[in-house]
Amino acid sequence: MKPNKIIHKKFSFIDAIIAIISLAALAALIFIVKYTNTQIRMEHELLAKAKNNNQFMKSDDPLYEMIEYLVFNEINQGGWIELYNIDRNTGIELSGCYIAVNGKNQYTFDDTDVINAGEFLCIEGIGKLGSSEHDIIGIYDENGNNLKNIMIPGLEKEESYGCLMEGDISYDYLTASKGISNSESERIDKDQLTFLVPGGFYDESFDLMLTAPEGSTIYYTLDGTKPSNQSNIYTEPILIENKSGSNMKYAKADGIDYIGSYRPSSISIGMVVRAVAIDPNGISSEVKSQSYFIGFKNASDLKNIPVLSITTEPDLLFDYFEGIYVTGRSHEDALARGEDGKESANYLNNWEREVFVEYFDAQKEKTYEGMMSIRIIQDLSISLPQKSLLLKAKGGGFPGSGLRNYFNDISNSLTLQTNRTDNSFKIREYLAGKLLANTTVGTPYIMPCNVFIDGEYWGGYMLRAEYDEAYINKRFGIDESNVLIAKDSRITNIPNYQQEYTELLEFIINNDLKDEENYAWIEEHMDIENYLEYFCANMFLANAEYGEDSLVMWRTINEQGRGFEDGRWRFLMPRLDNSMKNEVAGKLASSSINTFLQTGVTEDVYFQSLIGNEKFKELLDKVMTKMVEECFNYEQVDKEINMIFEQMKRMVESSYKRYFGYPSDFFYTTEIDKIRSFFQERSRFILLYTEEVMSWGGISNVRDDGISE
User: Fold this and answer.
1) Residue 17 — left, alpha, or beta (φ > 0 → left; ψ -120 to 50 → alpha)?
2) Measured between alpha carbons, how far is residue 463 from residues 385, 402, 570 in Å?
3) Which pTM value belongs to this model?
4) Percent of the chain with pLDDT over 90
5) Mean pLDDT value across the chain
6) Alpha carbon distance 292, 239 (integer Å)
7) Distance between CA 47 and CA 73 in Å, rounded?
8) How far is CA 478 from CA 359, 483, 492, 496, 623, in A?
């Protein structure tokens, strides 16, 4: 049964007062009309400026022009959603769009679904809402692009969650008000501490109201510290405003890097409010936290890019004794013992701490919040001010949240990486993933993301989905229970299947693959063309670290299926940050380098064993030609580079400024041009080297177990 829709205008008590005044004083009404028109014009001018700064808006599509005027006005547990158009002049046409609840399509708008200026559209029959602690309701266009989201709390029977006034930023639990003004609803008192304005991105300062059960006292903090009965007492609404400037605390913390490098003079700063309610018996409620960012939504370095806000007791990160982000006592204790201290620091101890995490999608609407643990990832950034972070939740990302795709579904962990050797520019691995999207090799799901810690801007990161069964399911459509994953020759998810991989590796090492029967056996057990896509992509991109990262392979347990479900081993791409003329690699990532001569290739047991077979050589030539003419075709490369440039330029520049100082005027453009030149020049070199390597044969420099030394 299709959900119903009701279009209506609400007539409130305020409307009645205005009508009476208009009848009693026409002159006053004329003045009000003139004043209102002026306000509308000013409002539209401000919104127009905001839209011009927001790449998410598409000027050629009225929907994208108007979507920011659309408000989730009221959501009712019984299964209806009320939308409101806050614009006073133009309707919003939603034809072809759909409403999803927790990622599942529940209603598709038809041609008649137009919300006129100042009117409401009520969609009924959605199904029970607020049945979980957090429901994510989203509106998507016909191509599946996310336009609008709201995260609602759990609801009891017939309860609503909605704006206190039409289109307001304050939300609360309400009695149902379908067809009448929300101002006519009654607020429902809850036996809990409540923030009436959810954490998020807002255009202007506002006063934040907190509520708690009668008789309780609310205590709060604004610096990330955990509130107690010694904290500020809540007696009046809290002013939420833009705190950006030089008054940062944690960005200048001692010991956040080994050498004491650059510290910023000013940064973007939001507000973090943490609160607790204590009843007359001294019993404390759960501590609740929310992050607020005023005037940031359309900032050029944040637009169209998600934000992750991390809130925690500052000492857990930056304290000399217990902070996991600093050199701290561990470093100085090593110095006192006469050691050089390079291998000793708090951030090298693998300590974990508890944090509260909020995720805001590209439109800056929250679709995740929850407690997690955090620890520092020991990679190339470990001794630098911006470190890679591993977050771990009790459960994965909420269904319907964009964050869900980046959770490891086995460990419930979330990786925030600093882009390793490409951290200044954050483009190479992101670009490679887009260029290889139509091949059979898997590339990591990575997404640019801005991070704030206790309200302070912490730079641009990449959310990275690790290779696991959930990744294989999303990328290749394979049921998670039917997946084997091998990392560095070890089955990681179902160890009792280790023999399945060992059999392949031993056959390759112990048999002459020039023999057609032996080669045919390999074809039955390994997707050779997939391997060559993996191999040729690494060679073309001049991956200077080929063979150094973990070798990750996968296959289905079932061997009787078709396509990707045929039980053959396939390959997943390694990290590709140190490639494509990355200066960190020196000449090893140049456009002219013969990557076939790298140690990672000469020690690649698969390639060195197979290259002696004529059939393999023919396939190598075919796949490399495909890479040159299709995947890395310059026209396609240039298109993807331009899109990434527009999306990420300001984020990258802002992140660089945060950690290294003001970049030059051509900082990002110069690097982009360098990558462009790599693709313009690379083809003629790699095709020549491919012809040369086709004369090779045999195994060289490979250990008996097939793992590169």
Assistant:
1) alpha
2) 18, 11, 24
3) 0.89
4) 82
5) 90
6) 11
7) 20
8) 28, 7, 17, 20, 25
